[in-house]
Amino acid sequence: MANRKTIKEKVYRIDNEKYLQEKALEEGVKVLDNGVIMKQLEIGYGEKCPTPGGIVYVHYTGRLIDGTVFDSTEGDQLPALFMVRDLIMGWQIALTRMHEGDRYEVTIPAKWAYGPKKMEGIPAWSTLIFDIKLVKIER
Residue 55's beta-bridge partner residues? Predict the structure, then answer.
């Protein structure tokens, strides 16, 4: 018989997959071929998108499907600075489609986030939802 932890993990994974299916049906979202879901919240002013080797400044809030916030730049005066290729694949997929000034809600399936790995504040097989504002493309 499976132990409680294994059953709980399976239920959590199913709940996350169900969330993705329901999110894909919402008005105004775009489901990319790889399953990442993007909803534009603000239209930017930039003409170019970052490349995987690019450096970007972003403000963001990351949360789980239950609304739990696990990371955020909210309250920080300065945006976070990242090299695009150093981020999880879901962020790379989203950022390379965004322009300076764009703000999106990005829903990332577990396979493009941390998959079976647990991270601090993030259970294994978590769908991650980010509100991302691309402030500036450095290069």
Answer: 83
Distances (CA, A) of 135 to 57, 60, 63, 84, 95: 5, 10, 20, 14, 11
| Alpha-helical segments (H) within 2-126 | 4-23, 89-95
**CB-based contact 134:99 (threshold 8 Å):** yes
Q: Is 12 a catalytic residue?
A: no
Alpha-carbon radius of gyration of the chain: 16
Read off the pLDDT of residues 23-46 as tens digits, 9 standing for 90 and up: 999 999 999 999 999 999 999 998
CATH number of 4-137: 3.10.50.40
Q: Where are the domains of the chain?
A: 4-137
Of the candidates 12, 19, 57, 70, the residue annotated as catalytic is 70
Q: Is 88 a catalytic residue?
A: yes
Q: Annotated catalytic, 71?
A: yes
76 labelled catalytic: no
- Taking the whole predicted model, whether its pTM rises above 0.70 is answered as yes
